[in-house]
């Protein structure tokens, strides 16, 4: 007999600001549950290179998600009809990126083979652990990466594993297929001119914020869909892709970004792609005293659930 | 002899951050004044279903309005030439929606018949009391409703009177004319698929945020003007219609909304319609430590004063 | 088979800022569990007469409690050895005090007879529902009430059920035994001189903040213990009893109060009394951007768990 | 006929968080009113030498005062029985201390001779203008000055009129009687050793925070009463006298101060002295996102009203 | 021998959140350095007419700039190749606009003739002192002025020198050439209808926010470039030109503004103009608890450095 | 020729909120300077086990220190007469405690042998690196440790180097002399009963917060002085030793602590002990939107400078 939630009355009767504190008030995951997508928190900020705080991200995203509902006007489906669950947080070692990456991969191995994940970060370094699990299950994947930064540095202060090097490592490990990889929203100044052409050299396509905002939603959607094609694809959204007006609560904010509406509009145009996993990372709750940053993260995460559910 | 304001020197000589704390530093209303539009606060949040705090809204809107001036570059008129006054707050009963609605309607009855109101909320449930007074004076009205949510639920937790049901009640009571009613800015996820077509079934026209942002300001203005026509019309603006980046200080924020410039631009295109009343609701001051949310509410309220003043 | 928590690894291995979000990371309660004390949230602020926000209290207290540990240096016992669980939130009706009181009492009836509760508020009006359940199970009780306000008003704005009348109602309903009741920390200005002697007229003993601070911890402990004696006693702590420096996040703060150390010291001196229930109320999270107010509430709640566990 | 307040229903029926926004909800002052004490705001921060923001002080103190009531348990009198009014704000010139001082003095001259004032600052430089008016009416006065700083500098950056020189100027102008002047709560580091003995050289008695906290409330009260005697005395409270934990919202906070309870306790011991005026200054609202700093200022101001009312 | 920075290891090895706290981590300026552009802070808010706080601006902009890098993807140059330095703050007299203007001009005179400045405000009144120095060195200049307000008032409260009159004074003193002057982003309500045509009467071109947003980035860039031509031009950016969602931390915010992306895009289109000086003013750090406002100011200042570096 | 500060005018003429941003506006350290005490920042939070953010501590302490002056009324000396300098920040590796400890020790080695340090943290793990340098120079030391927590854990999540194990490591490495070590302010709940006697078993004396507050300042000073005697002693102050009301901006706050006045009073009683180094750690600036926490840290650091200067 299961005891999913410590509630006297059914969750449905509770005001949304109370009751089960899971993401979107999904049922808790249990070891014998058959779920199509599991939401997991990865409360880690040991790979952060500027402002810390992302370790508090998962619960803040969950709390901000309580006011979100299961039915999408755009996709015309309800998450209530999917087999979803919130599996709580993964164990991390706050002071070690490599140990945490191993732990992340190891813990995900405890889920049945067909389970897909929506991970709530945590800083971007955790994506490497997530990708390793995805690729172990399904082979190398395409990547749709929304971010103000390309995260393609080779190392920083002699450290090869951190949130600025994650996709360089993923590329080196063969986890992502460069010709099916696209980075959207890149902007901001660079340390060296060389960085400007780096994605190109790695065979990765970049769409800058300027390009995105000038070409518009529709063209950007087509560009992404063309790039990733029909194969398995992973979605990684760094919250700092949106302008700091929309999400000041992130460790490396970059002025001059798109609105959350622009991001959500593009995401909604990606339905039908073969998403095999997704993450929403870099919410640092102490850096925003309002709910706004968390709400963007939660709404993006909700959209990711729709995309995962709609994937063939 | 009147003592409008406790000031040693005329209000005009005071720095705007000091002196009379009324909305836009309007004169206080007095029982023998003949005003065309009275500004009133309705400090109530007993109808709130998610985050509370809107009871503190009226004074926060007033404070945020101190830096606003009477002359509009767009409309080329000055509110200094209209007969306007701030009539303070209405009495409410914080723990009862029905009692508050009765009180609101009753107190408004104390004003001369021709007075029109700009109400500063308070949560959206108070609009029902305001509409009852408007309709008592002038008969059923058209409605221009800016909001992220349609507020057309039938009940919640067995409660028929709250901020999520206000326009369902107004429709049932015959206060609004569905074929002259338009809801603009609706977005966000739904609890049940049925909600999606509900406005349609009630004969109410909805313009989603997506439609608004893709069709642009001019088309949206035409759409609204066509819908409401020449008859008397009420304006109700829920602050959550704008994106949480612009107004995080609201109880049920919804990511992915328009900017305040888009909202103000549409409002400015509505001059000349027969506005008989207006409200700006759902500012919850404790939820935004900056002046930003209050300033949007105050600027929208200022625009509503222009619209009321310009109404034939 | 139980699924207490959605965790891949045992809760004990998780960093304290992650994992199970229950109060002090207690196990979730389940219907077949035999617990000595159940922690319950009562997320309600419909009885608030000044600043709202306490409906968000329960989860904020839980989150602030994650850094608290089970062993007390003072009492030399560990809560790990007691049968404790977090039973989640009770259902409330945000816009009705009477309905919520009935619901509170009704839901508590679902627990086995011997279960005692530590309730996390919510505004103080919920204490009436809690007391009704306690008294139904065990008969009238003594009361130790820490608060800046006596909450003995008869009504406010015609409303008899709210957070300012809760102990008047409890007295009228015979739930508390006046000669075993003591109110500690009362301070602040009054609306009418009559209020000053009201507790006296009802046979209730009051210890003002001034008296408390001048007579000190030890005397105050003796005074309380003498007053309540050996019979069953209920503990109700309104967070506003401490100075707003320690807990600004409360709806009706009152300057000039004791420190949290003074409050905790007195509480720690009450071990061995026959506590049959307890609540910690009036944390309004939106009113304090730091963790401080929540941490006081959580630490007081932890102390209440020690007192309930140590009760004969 | 007077129109004191723009209210449809009597102020007494309004919830305290709504209605007339005056200090403690006092009636507004009008030119024909006979008041014993007038509350006035002086919204000026042009004399600030560290962090600015005090110009927003008066309305923030008023707002924080709404939850305060007229009857004092300590003094056993009600302000409802005194003739008090809120006269709004004085006009200031934000960019000129000398002009503002002249304006302050000039505007106070508009009140009948017997009117006494409780001024809400504003930075401490405004006290010089207030004292000039007091002394013009009643001759030189004794001074009870609570502050972390002695404000006895001769000049700063070549500027002789600012909040760090105010009592040097008052001394030079003969406004205060040194042998009836006492400064309480002085603490913090100094720029030059010479400053340490400066009060002494001017014949002014200083009680440091250390002395105050070690000798206790009772002795401090005696010390003050002995110093100022029976003659007319002015009370000036700089909010930074209390510890920044109690009032972080002030321009020159100084760690290691007394609690607000200690300050209020001493103030309550001063009843019966011949107070002829008072001010509470240096609340800088933008520097504290909570109500706490404003509440200390408001409660001190309330106590000042009791003292002014109880003065022979 | 120079001691530019108190660092044990070279600045380049330090994490960006640590080390030298200069703007963008530029070297500190020293008296014998030959720099093309010097960054200077002007920590003054004595000319502010609404909310104060801008005196804390310079260090807040510096701190927000630490995450910015020297290479621009747009301009394809690196500031590392220019001779730039941070010369710290200018001395100001917080309580006097005229004295501060004289000091600003005087101190700038200490730099070699060819030095150009990027000034970090401070309120807008300091621009007058900066312009006087620029004009003394190079003669009257064209002006590109981004602001929500025209700052063309003649006086306020009898004060001729403040942040609302700065460009009226500059015009009167012949510092700016009206036919090469353009104000961009003007919006908001006015006190008197006359203000509307004032720029016109002075021969200054204004582009309102409405015009800007409807005509788009490219047209606006052309309009500016055509207006100012090839002669020497000064850039002055008031942070309040962007919407308060992007920068609530400013003294006179005005709703309905452009995004920071729109502002940055226009600025990036101005490369090649003959910029002889620039300022970014009106950041008031206490009014925004997040980094967002400071980050917009810092990114605009970084762009100004590119423009100054690229000027012929 | 030295260029200590990028200032046009001497630092002494600058308002304290401007100019050189060093700790207490001390001169910057340069390689050829002979200083008695160097202030250094250690911007590291990779050893944090609960809330992160302490990496931003050093500059926040510096900024909060600008209003502090060099002369102490208590000690009657001026820091202006000592040879002090701010040496900026040490290089750290944000994602590795062991690497950072080595770097800390290594960099300190670059200073002349007689230099003593006041370190501004950073989390408490950095103290181990600091102690290693101290002991290398002078041999094992006594320790005065103010903290809510004993930091004597052996490991956490398999990690032996973090802020909870720092004094266990120091003890093991023989850096501190147990019989000359005292921990003051310890409080809060424990994970296991065994922890309670751990200090005892290691030969370290603990004074709990309860003992401290009940025995008072004078006794506590004597207790500390007796314990550490005349030999070299290191001072380590974890900001969380004070109550969260005084310093909410810290990663592991613990309710029920002493005031900042109590802490400062004890520190002031330690003059004359042979201090050879000191640190003030665990300020996490993002967790307190006010200056209060930083000001406590800065004032404690200032007091540490007095103690280091007064050491024989």
UniProtKB/TrEMBL annotation, chains A, B, C, D, E, F:
Protein's GO biological process: putrescine biosynthetic process from arginine, via agmatine
This protein's UniProt keywords: Hydrolase, Manganese, Metal-binding
InterPro entries associated with the record: Agmatinase-rel, Ureohydrolase, Ureohydrolase_dom_sf, Ureohydrolase_Mn_BS
Annotated Gene3D superfamilies: Ureohydrolase domain (3.40.800.10)
Binding site for Mn(2+) 1: 147, 149, 151, 238, 240
Needed cofactors: Mn(2+)
EC number: 3.5.3.11
CDD domains attached to this UniProt entry: Agmatinase_PAH
Enzyme class: hydrolase
PROSITE patterns: ARGINASE_1, ARGINASE_2
Coiled-coil residues: none
Domain of life from the UniProt record: Bacteria
Any matching Pfam family: Arginase
Recorded family membership: Belongs to the arginase family. Agmatinase subfamily.
NCBIfam families: agmatinase
Record protein name field: Agmatinase
